[in-house]
Amino acid sequence: MRIAKYISNAGYCSRRDAEKLILSGKVYINDVLCKKPNVNVNPNDKILIEKKLVKLKNNIRLWKIYKPPRTICTNKDPQKRKTIFDILPNDFPRVISIGRLDFMSEGLLLLTNNGDYARNLELPSSNVLRVYRLCLKGDITTNMINQINRNISIYGINYKKISAKIEKFQNPYTWVIFKLKEGKNREIRNICKFFKWSVIKLIRIQYGTIKLSQQKMGEIQEVKKLPSKLC
C-alpha cells in the first residue's frame, strides 16, 4: 500500500492532503524521512506524522453530524474560521469528511475513519443521491423549475439531471427540494444565482440512504450499520 493511501485509510486526512504532508517533509517511515508519496509501506511499518504515530483502523466507522452554518469542512483554515472538527468532542476518533458542505450551508455531513471508504462515496461515478431543502427569496415559477429539471446548462457548465420541486410557499419565501447525484462544486448555489434567487437557507437532508432525521445542529450520531452502498 502506498504511504499516501495508508495515511488516508488511517483517517488522518484525505489522500491529497497526505501527499502534501509528505512533500512538505512531515512524514517519517521507520524513523526515515519519506520524500515521495508513492513509497510502499505495510501494516508493520511505523508511520510518524509531525512526531505522532499513525495506525491503520481495522474497522470502518461512520458518523453523521448536523453541520451548522458558518463552519467549514477542512481541518485547518487560514482565515481562522470555525471548522466541523472544532465542534467534535475532544475524545472523538480522528475522522475525515465524506464530501463537503460550503461555509454557509448546513445539514447532513458524513464522517468516517477510513479514507478509501470516503473516496468511494464521493466519486461522481458512485451516483450517490444528495437531497437538499432550500429556503429561497425571489421570483420562482413552475417554468423555472421545469427548466432545471431538463439538464440545465449555466455559464458554460452542463449539469446532469436534477429533480427540483416546490415544497411550500411561506411568504415572502419559497421552500424548494433539490435532488441530484452529480454534485459539482457549488452546483445548487450557481443555479440559484442564475435565476437571481437569494438563498436564505441551504440544508442537506439526505446523502444516499442516510437521512438527517431529528438531529439538532451540531449533534453527532454514529451509523451503527454501514450501508453496503448509499445509492
Fold and architecture overview:
It contains five helices and 15 strands. It has 231 residues and is α+β, with helices and mostly antiparallel strands. Strands 5, 6, 7, 8, 11, 12, 13, 14 and 15 form a nine-stranded mixed beta sheet that branches. A four-stranded antiparallel beta sheet has the order 2-1-3-4. Helix 1 (3-9) crosses helix 2 (15-23). It folds into three domains: 3-54, Structural Genomics Hypothetical 15.5 Kd Protein In mrcA-pckA Intergenic Region, Chain A (Roll), CATH 3.10.290; 62-125 and 211-222, Pseudouridine synthase I, catalytic domain, N-terminal subdomain (Alpha-Beta Plaits, 2-Layer Sandwich); 129-207, Alpha-Beta Plaits, CATH 3.30.70. The mean pLDDT is 90. The radius of gyration is 20 Å and the shape is elongated. It starts with a helix and ends in a 9-residue tail after the last strand. 26% of the residues are buried. The protein has helices at 3-9, 15-23, 115-122, 142-148, 187-194; strands at residues 27-29, 32-33, 47-49, 52-54, 62-67, 96-98, 106-112, 130-137, 153-154, 157-158, 163-170, 173-180, 198-207, 210-211, 220-222. Helices cover 17% and strands 30% of the residues. Strand 3 (47-49) and strand 4 (52-54) form a beta hairpin.
